[in-house]
Design brief:
Number of strands: 9
Radius of gyration: 19 Å
Strand order of the largest sheet: 7-6-5-8-9
Number of helices: 11
CATH superfamily of the largest domain: Aspartate/ornithine carbamoyltransferase
CATH class of the largest domain: Alpha Beta
CATH topology of the largest domain: Rossmann fold
Oligomer: single chain
Bound molecules: phosphoric acid mono(formamide)ester
Strand content: 5-15%
Largest sheet: 5 strands, parallel
């Protein structure tokens, strides 16, 4: 099992906080934990006696469940709070919710929130380690890390790769975490999507904006597609999903422009027939379920590493 001693981050708020060495250390730790999930008894005592609270203010299948699976596989006690079952429905502020949760002495709080910066706000009111499970359109660091782990497994290295990210870049916390993560590890990131869904200053994040889908995908090692996040759009920014699919979907014909051994990724949830046709989503180049498997290993690593800083 990798050592937690070299890790200095008590809170995980974004990929932005990590150096290249931090990312390598997290991925090596996740690698060492991955095998636990293949055992017949999928449990180690590493976090026995520790309390992990999942505080999710937005829907989630993969992230919430895999943090819970990760914590349970490490013998932590886990608890879930959702907006419908919390007193935020009665007008309690996030700060007051945080103060009250903190009074029960949890060790780790995992938060997903529609507002960018909510995890940072939480750190001001709690002693526990805070892990950002997605905040608005800001960051989704554990998704970025599991994506890096998945690419490294398929490509051995993260250096010198062409990574194409296609879709709703403007509203995507996954895009932000991945642009930072991949460029920090030496990959070149190319983005493409509807003009209304490309944020200003994307080049300052380190990505290159392409003029066509073909340009983005040609010779790519990794083709990552993103969901249209209608829930974050105040006004409609697209004529229709059918129109989007016609222009931006990664069809088999488009995928053939990438390297023959290119991998297709999607953070989920996939809108079949919109970002990807079923034959590509389920095809031999798709690693979408590998991403989900690696999500558990990465989250085990994060729980372990932040507890090493307590
Ligand atoms: N990738 C991701 O964040 O999926 P969920 O919204 O299901 O957690």
């Amino acid at each position: 099992m990798a050592s937690g001693k070299a890790f200095a981050h008590h809170h995980i708020l974004g990929m932005e906080q990590f150096s290249r060495e931090d990312i390598s250390h997290i991925l090596a730790t996740a690698d060492s934990f991955k095998e636990i999930s293949t055992r017949s008894i999928k449990k180690v005592p590493t976090l026995r006696g520790h309390t992990v609270i999942n505080l999710f203010f937005e829907p989630s299948t993969r992230t919430r469940l895999s943090f819970e699976v990760a914590a349970k596989r490490m013998s932590a006690d886990t608890f879930n709070i959702s907006p419908t079952t919390s007193s935020t429905t009665k007008g309690e502020t996030l700060a007051d919710t945080a103060r009250n949760i903190s009074a029960m002495h949890p060790d780790i709080i995992i938060i997903r929130h529609p507002c960018s910066g909510a995890p940072l706000l939480l750190t001001r009111y709690v002693q526990a380690a805070v892990i950002n499970a997605g905040d608005g359109a800001h960051e989704h660091p554990s998704q970025g890390l599991l994506d890096l782990m998945t690419v490294k497994e398929h490509r051995t290295t993260l250096s010198g790769l062409k990574v194409a990210i296609v879709g709703d870049i403007a509203h995507s916390r996954v895009a932000r975490s991945n642009i930072t993560g991949f460029t920090r590890m030496g990959s070149a990131v190319y983005v493409y999507g509807p003009a209304t869904l490309i944020p200003k200053g994307i080049d300052q994040l380190g990505a290159t904006l392409c003029g066509s889908l073909e340009e983005a995908v040609r010779d790519a090692d990794v083709v990552m597609t993103l969901r249209i996040q209608r829930e974050r759009q105040n006004d409609p920014l697209l004529p229709s999903l059918r129109e989007y699919a016609r222009q931006f979907s990664i069809s088999q014909r488009i995928l053939e422009l990438a390297r023959p051994d290119a991998i297709v990724m999607h953070p989920g949830p996939v809108n079949r027939g919109v970002e990807l046709p079923p034959e590509v989503a389920d095809g031999p180049q798709s690693v979408i379920l590998d991403q989900v498997t690696n999500g558990v290993a990465v989250r085990m690593a994060l729980l372990y590493l932040v507890m090493g800083t307590a």
